[in-house]
Amino acid sequence: MKELPKGQDTTTLPPWHDQMAPGDFISYGPAYTAGAYFNLFEKLTFTDGDFSMTYYVYNPVAHGADPAKKYPVLVSLHGTSCALNGDMCISNAGAELFASPEYQAQMGGAFILVPLANEYRIHNGDVKGYWDETYEPHLVKLITAFRAQYAENLGKVIVQGCSSGGFMAWVLAKKNPQLCDAIIPIGGRGLPSERQFIALEMCGCHMLILHGKRDELAAFDQVIAPSIPRLQRTKNCKCFFPEWVRNSDGGVSSINFGFEMGQHCLVNAFQENLLFADGKPMWDEMPHGVTAWIREFAGQ
Could you tell me the pTM of the whole model? Predict the structure, then answer.
């Protein structure tokens, strides 16, 4: 097995270990090694009056894509504490592999925008400054400015977020349904009200909602289950709610940095394109992975 992130506990069994099927196994990390494509991203600063935030950009045209074409932009919002990891946040947010030559070819090209929340730790170790609704107007201005800057090459806007980034993706979509052509909330709280669902449908927003049924931090029965009837009748909405979140090796995902969150971090499977190492899909409704869905949605 490849080297795991420093500090990850693989000695404490997850609370759900005795619920796995006979012959199943625990997987402690995705197959990819983070960092291989960080050099393809430009690190920049966005300012809005007294407010500023760091963000990363992958520009397909700068890496050889046809300058006469338009490409979608994947706005990728990280989870809580990930902004403290510096460049590693690109991978934590589920964005890094989408800049790889393989994924870019599969998508037909795409911009990638990774904003970082202004996170910090206080004396007791708690994280402050994570995504909340106060960021919404600044993110709207960042995305709007980005669209204007790359107007000649920019097509549809896809907002993807994991954990608190998934919550932030919902906030952006609910308050600005005309801004988001598609959203991909992963393990995120804050699903829309009936009125907000209607507004998103009227704007033609596509939704790809990913949430594990055993999510340790955003309990499925509380966050998702009450909205399932509405999701089932929502236009342009696809939902992946796996019984077990798995890595591409087929094992059940476990991540423990003081508490178990392997079933919450479906973003790792998302970054593995929702495909197992042998090419089989993790989800039958997406047989060729997220990259194929993006290509079809963007009309590439």
Answer: 0.96
